[in-house]
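User: Please run a holo structure prediction.
Assistant: Happy to. Please share the sequence and the ligand.
User: Here you go; the ligand is P-hydroxybenzoic acid.
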Amino acid sequence: MKDRIHPTRRRVLQGLAGATALTALPRFAYAADPVKIGLILPMTGPFASTGRQIAAACRFYMQQKGDTVAGRKIELILKDDTGLAPETTKRIAQEMVVQDKVTALAGFGLTPLAFAAAPVATEAKVPMMVMAAGTQVIPQRSPFIVRSGFTLPQTTSPIADWAFKNNIRRVFSMVTDFAPGLDAERTFQTRFTAAGGTIVESVRTPLRNPDYAPFLQRAKDAKPDALFVFVPSGEGLAVMKQFDERGLRQAGIRMIGPGDVVDDDLLESMGAPAAGVITSFHYSAAHESPENRAYVDGMMKANPGMRPNFHSVGGYDGMHLIYESLKKTGGTATGEQLVEAMKGMKWMSPRGPMSIDPATRDVVQTIYLREVKMVNGKPWNIEFDKFENVGPAGLG
Ligand code: PHB
């Protein structure tokens, strides 16, 4: 393979550490060339469910809408960054830009990985579709970033209001110790204490190899009305198991948070112990709409045994943004023109109505309050209230 690389490009590849290398190559788009989308996801490791869900949703989008847009064939190039190595994500992004000449970068399962790739998008002037990572500041890291997923302040603020209105006064807070966890912690604590609530204790669990048992024992001993929890998707099952085994529910402690902890990908494995958990979030596989019914049916048919989760819609809607911006600009547009075309776009997603805020390039969407309920023997996040047009900073 290496022998096919042009000598100039090989030099650039060898000198990738010097970021200026990325602009040294002319970027010609020919109508006959395919539009390549470089999808970088954790396909292995502790966050592999994020990669599996997003890759499946991107493929499902292409299966539904076809693989040609504005006269050009769309080609998805999927690479595994293993989830925990920002340097790997950055290197893959550089290779995709220089070797594969991708039209857009996409994916980004966790915040540190999105942070690592942002300078590559800026240097190469390539749109970077953040489909999963949820820390609010991410789009500020590059003018080429557009987010199709969610932000933590957006998904967390409604549960803070709900908790106080529903007589929860004393909360034990537990979040994963990295950027989105700190966003969730700050958003919840600010709103809940402003309303008159008390945080009895606030703990942060490690991102790598976490053991939730000692933290949940402390939570039980503190006798709060509720445990507020944020863990990245993939971790909810371990938290639920310990919550159940240590008897927090029997002690009268409720579990609340943004919906990552009751992620649809794992919810069936959690089973009955998840019932009663109340969260605020932008997507539930149980969302009642014709668009979502078609989405869940189609995804489950294409991927037997997989219930689509919130990350999957981030992937699906990210593909929508790429397709629609290509349609709008005619198929040979620059990265700047594509990003410009995405700003202000509005559409109906399986999750509900959504748009891209032109000022921040971030998602504006409906956030729902949901309770886990058993339906025909299986747990689902059943929506019972909603807040429309919530921006990236959360409820005002
Ligand atoms: C993130 O890294 O931003 C992230 C990952 C998984 C989540 C939420 C946020 O469930």
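The pocket of P-hydroxybenzoic acid is lined by residues 110-111, 133-135, 180, 232-233, 260 (CB under 6 Å).
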